[in-house]
Amino acid sequence: MVSVLNTVDTGHEDMIHDAEMDYYGLRLATCSSDNSVKIFDLKNGTQTLAADLKGHVGPVWQVAWAHPKFGNILASCSYDRKVIIWKELGEWTKIYEHASHDSSVNSVAWAPHEFGLILACGSSDGSISILSNNGDTWDAQKIPNAHTIGCNAVSWCPAIEPGYDATAPHPRSGPVKRLATGGCDNLVKIWREDNERWIEENKLEAHSDWVRDVAWAPAVGPPRAALASCSQDRRVVVWTSTDCTSWTSTVLNVFEDVIWNVSWSLTGGILAVSGGDNKVSLWRENSEGQWACISELNKGQGNLNNPEQRAL
Amino acid sequence: MRTQRFIITSNFIKRCRGPLSFLKMSKRWGSDYVVAEHRDLQANTMAVDTTGSFVLLAGRRCFAVKHLDEGTDTLRKFQRQSKYEVGSAEWNPNSQNCHLCAISSNNRVEILNFVGGDGRDLTTTHSLRAHTRVVSDLNWHPTEPDILASCSIDTFIHIWDIRDQRRPCLSLSAVAGASQVRWNCLSPHIVATAHDGDIKIWDQRKGNSPMQYIAAHLTKIHGLDWCPFQQNQLATSSQDCTVKIFDVSNPRRAESILTTSAPVWRARYTPFGEGLVTIVVPQLRRGENSLLLWNTSNLTAPIYTFIGHTDVVLEFQWRHQKKAPNDFELITWSKDQCLRIFKIDPFLQKLCGHDLDDGTSVYTPYTEDNNLRTLRSMQQLELQDTPTDREMNFVMSKIDGGKMGIESLTYSTSDKDVLSPTQPKTLQQEFSLINVNIPNIEVNAMDAEQRSCTVTASNKNYNVILKVNFPGNYPYNASPTFQFCPGTTIDNTAMAKLSKVLKQTAQQRVRKNRSCLEPCLRQLITTLEQMCVSDETEGKHLGYRMPHSANFLNTTGAIFPNYQDTYIPFPRTSGAKFCCVGILVCFGRTPYARRPSIKPESVTPRALSALGSGVGSSSHFPHVYPAYSQPNAADNISISSFYFHERRGSRRSLHPSTRLHSKTPNKNHPMVTIYDASPLFFVNKELAEKYIINITDIPGMCQYNAGVAALLERPDLVQAWCLAALVISQPMPSNLSSNDIETPWPLHPFGQNLIHSLIQHYASQSDIQMAGMLSCTFTYRSENQDVGQGRAVSKSVNVSRLSTGKWWQKPGGSPYHTIHPADTTLEGWNFQNLKQHRSNSWSESLDDLKFVQETLGDPVRNIRFLDEKNTTLYDSYKKAYAEVLHSWRLLDARAQVLKHVSVPPIDSHKAVEFQIECYICNKSSRGPQCNNCRQLAFQCAICHISVRGPSNVCVVCGHGGHTEHLAAWFTTKTLCPTGCGCYCLNESTTLMKI
Questions:
Q1: Band of residue B639 on the pLDDT scale cut at 50, 70, 90
Q2: Pick from A229, B171, B304, B445: CA 20 to 30 A from residue B597's CA?
């Protein structure tokens, strides 16, 4: 059922830590311990290196594409405590460098495009910074001490219509900005913007070790908010809420190794999970609300089971 | 007083047991001390005045003042009539009031005035009462002569100005009783108090609450002391057998912790260097009566022990006579009623890291010759002395360490495993710790005995051979000398510049007594590269690493402690991300980078620091050179090294070529695999391409779409579309029933309910395509039915009327269009936005009319297929589907779907918006109807009739009219029909191309 579209030789000189395709699925951005970020144009199974972005002086942990209505914009974060925003203006250039964190920046995520060009960054210094673009300038807002010891992941809540979201203070004020973060305090926290200030709305406790990734499910499907988190404790937890105030947790699975990544499909419904054991599995919730691994089911057909990634 | 005895021993090593025979030994190693026994005083506290001349001994029955510089007979006793002991005593530290001594007695603080000279009288001049319980501690302000702080278990800390003794000038209220109070030595407003195991730091300007609260110990804190040199450093001694040193500006954790074998009564900083003296809690009487001297930079073991006490030490203070700057004495008062004066040898001060001013005289003993001599004398001592003196062992062991190599004799500790957090102590140590892996630098020789080092810095532009000579007292404010050796190819001016830069770098470091070789070498290579880049334009490849890191260090400035890696998560080396629609991007380690030892119990580490432990000793360097830790640390973080266990050995080697080798070979570049996971999803691009949304014939549209689904082998969808077609084709009203009793069709179970559950079904299984399409279908149907007439109107009216005047000359100023500046920057997007917004405003206007119509229309007929309370839900499906179409680049389909969104999509960005200026009343409005006069506001430029049907306008001049008329006009002409002079066709096309 799943077929390989493209295999990209990134040419990075060291391990890569993140890879993401742009909105249209035509370009791939990768980042690596060799301090560089690369962008590839992919077409019909071929690859061309479009840019090799050098600007970080430490391993680059994550990249994120902005919505294309703002232009071709990419954000990257690194061990060197910096966040760099790159834009294709003929050539790829650095348009902004954010260097106010005191430790490694581990995660970057663009806000839903409805809110404008806004980037959230989570750092090992425990703080989260929110950069909003105002034409030529960038405003930085900081949530200090969001997670004691460090913040490992950030994810935005999709722009939900107020009617659908019971807690919206003013029904006609438009969607509320929400952010989920995970950190070394084993917590997942939900933040809500309230009068230009970020307040901690919820603190979700279920993990027994560092939370490595959080992912907010896209707002399609059942009228509820859903959130996936994964942790060093080898668990993936799916959180659901109908009102964004009370959350119920379901342990999706306990894996063999630590889990680093959770990613929802853009139309919702399927969750990709990957971790320290170099394996990827896909999970889907059935009509009874049970999570089942669908890539395991497909093992027989074996297409997804890339021998390199799945072999033990 | 009658039984006074006075004993002088010349060597402390020999333990004093009462009156002892004199023992003459090497004075160099002996720290002389003087004992004066004063029986019957029963003094329980002692205070040394600031001039260092007088000692006050205070007990319940009497005070005694002793003049230290005079003989034994100078003790003067003053009877005291009190039933309370003297708790604490302290002389005023300011020369102006140095004759005043404060003592605490029960709940009072008394100020004694010692009138010197012949009078030799001690009178109580003040009595300060405010505390309601016993005063536990008092402390004079270090700089204000009249200010005194006292604390008590009554929870109050009173600050007194002794010129007004009626009441305290400030009272700090703590919730818990205070046991200690100490003014900060350097910051005049800051005072620290101890409350059981906690510390409060107060700013007397903001006295209502403490500015800092430190949960320092779990058990009682007996003593507090501020560092006399570092404003924020505070040492706390506690019952839990530890002394913690806090940086009060960042007190989350203690900076360092000293652990002893017994509860610590006091820990006081030495007035020189970085020393700390501790004593055990007197009440314990454990038999451990010695004072321990520690160097705060290495708290693993005391560096010295002051011995000789036969009973516990009650109080100790420093005596420093100003006339001899390096002359310090430690005065102790012991329970055995002996006053002991320890002379602090320069050697001890040196051990505490004290930088002596008269360097030469002090340093001479430490040249190798002298060390040898010292050592010999110690060996003699060892021979002469009986080994039963266990107290000697400590000093001895140190000398033993020194025997291993005379030049590496370390005065602090010979324990090599314990890495000092500050810096190497000897040249040998520095040489062994230096990170020689600096680009273009090769170390030719390092000779700790000759105290020199030769390095070569070379590439094709230059070759510099530099000899660095280290003076004997380096790095204690003595910088090395730099000498260019034959073979150096740079010219004299460059040499001069280099030596100047190197000297500055070295100076900066040694001024703080820090070693400087590595910073100098790094500076050397940076400067060389800068010079070559400016000299020769082709030096492009030179600037590759150092300028980068140097710049990085400059911008961030602060020290980057490597220990933070403990809190940085271990890097991901594999992952999967869903991108676009149905694309799964995966990356992982190549088979060859798989961890060889995959055992079930070996879980991937959580923090980045796990890498440091795996790559040999290099991770320790950051501690040695904090400022340079960043580039090092970045070098060390090679995640692949974690997975290449077999290569770790080679990484330990400092040779650069081996490091390069350990990088992954070309063949094994990390790969990213992109999967097409779209078969996993119900959403289908082909369907999206073929589906239609037909506003005029909805049952037909449903049938068509059913056909599309059948073509693509989706029988499930065929059924759904057929059902939708059935529902939408409203049955003809039967002749039998009148309009009155017939249930409106939408309320029939096959109406609203069926449609809702159908849409919900697709939504819940994430088939956003079907949910979105159905939502569109039925939204339209309901509107079509209800507001047929209104729609006819709205359809015909689109854009504005013409204008007079030459608006086209300044497009931005025209009232008919606004082009957001952002649009011009988003190539390829402006047209998109334009299109989208046209559609939006169109449907908006449609809505406006609909509402008008609804208020007038038949209420029964207003019932829709989609329950209005769910409008936002259905809209969200439409928008989600539009987003999917967008990422497939099916822009027309997307626009079609967005047309049916009842609430305009929330878009914070601004874009083109059309406004109509009414040709009748000149008011502008957004809809087709003028808000003011309610007329159709747009007049055709050609026929001058209000436009009801399709229309076109020029976006430059704003003139337009019926599509038909304009089409006819522009087949032959290019100029605007109004005669405004605008070449509408050309202008519009160029505008769209921006």
A1: low
A2: A229
- Measured between alpha carbons, how far is A298 from A282 in angstroms, rounded to an integer? 10
The CA-based dihedral angle spanning residues A161, A167, A171, A175, taken in that order and rounded to the nearest 10 degrees: -40
Q: For residue A14, list chain B residues with Cβ-Cβ distance below 8 A.
A: 638-640, 663-664, 670
The minimum CA-CA distance between B687 and chain A, rounded to whole Å, is 16
Tell me which chain A residues have a C-beta less than 8 angstroms from the C-beta of B664: 13-14
- Cα separation, A134 vs A115, in Å, equals 12
Q: B468: Cβ–Cβ under 8 A, 6 or more apart, which residues? A: B452, B453, B454, B455, B480, B481, B482, B483, B517, B520
Residue of chain B nearest A150, judged by CA positions:
B567
Give contacts of A212 with chain B, Cβ < 8 Å.
Answer: 569, 572
Chain A partners within 8 Å of B876 (Cβ): 160-161, 164, 219-220
> Does residue B724 register a pLDDT over 90?
no
Query: What pLDDT score does B817 carry?
Result: 41
Residues 6 or more apart from B70 whose CB is under 8 A from it? none
- For residues B389-399, b (16+ Cβ closer than 10 Å) or e, as one string? eeebeebbebb
**For chain B, what percentages of helix, strand and coil (3-state, to nearest 5) are there?**
35, 25, 40
Q: Are A96 and A85 in contact (CB under 8 A)?
A: yes
Using the structure block, give the residue that is written with the tokens 């047309």: B899
Is A79–B637 a contact, with Cβ atoms under 8 angstroms apart? yes
Q: Is the pLDDT confidence value at B74 over 90?
A: no
- Model confidence band, residue A238 (pLDDT cutoffs 50, 70, 90): very high
Q: How far is the C-alpha of B429 from the C-alpha of A267, rounded, in Å?
A: 61
Q: Is B571 close to A15, i.e. CB distance below 8 A?
A: yes
Q: Domains in chain A, please, with CATH?
A: 146-310 (2.130.10.10)
- Strand pairing class (A225-231; A235-241): antiparallel
Q: Which of B358-367, B783-792, B896-905 has the highest mean pLDDT?
A: B896-905
Task: Return the residue matching tokens 């005191």.
Answer: A102
**How are the residues of chain A apportioned to helix, strand and coil, as percentages rounded to the nearest 5?**
5, 55, 40
Domains and CATH numbers, chain B: 427-557 (3.10.110), 564-676 (no CATH), 681-732+741-775+855-913 (no CATH), 787-817+914-994 (no CATH)
| Segment B20-28 long-range contacts (CB within 8 Å, at least 24 positions apart) | B25/B381, B25/B384, B26/B377, B26/B378, B26/B380, B26/B381, B28/B345, B28/B347, B28/B365, B28/B374, B28/B377
Give the closest of B671, B676, B765 to A7, CB-based: B671
For range B133-159, the mean pLDDT: 89
All residues of chain B having their beta carbon less than 8 Å from the beta carbon of residue A69 are 826, 829, 832-833, 909
Residues from chain A contacting residue B887 (CB–CB below 8 Å): 23-25, 266
Residue with tokens 């009986």: B386
User: Cα distance from A24 to chain B (closest Cα, Å)?
Assistant: 5
CB contact under 8 A, B583 and A81: no
What is the distance in angstroms between the Cα of A249 and the nearest Cα belonging to chain B?
19
User: Residue B21 burial (CB < 10 Å; 0-12/13-18/19+)?
Assistant: exposed
DSSP code string of B646-685: GGHHHHHS--HHHHHHTSPPGGG--EEEEEE-GGGSS--H
Are B908 and A12 an interchain contact pair (Cβ–Cβ within 8 Å)?
Answer: no
| CB contact (8 A) between residue A19 and residue B548 | no
Q: What single DSSP character describes residue A147? A: S
Q: Which has the minimum average pLDDT: B67-71, B364-368, B690-694, B697-701? A: B364-368
Contact flag A175-B766 (C-beta cutoff 8 Å):
no
Pick from B544, B579, B682, B836 the residue to mutate for testing the A interface (most A CBs within 10 Å).
B579
Facing B606 at nearest CB: one of A1, A2, A232: A232
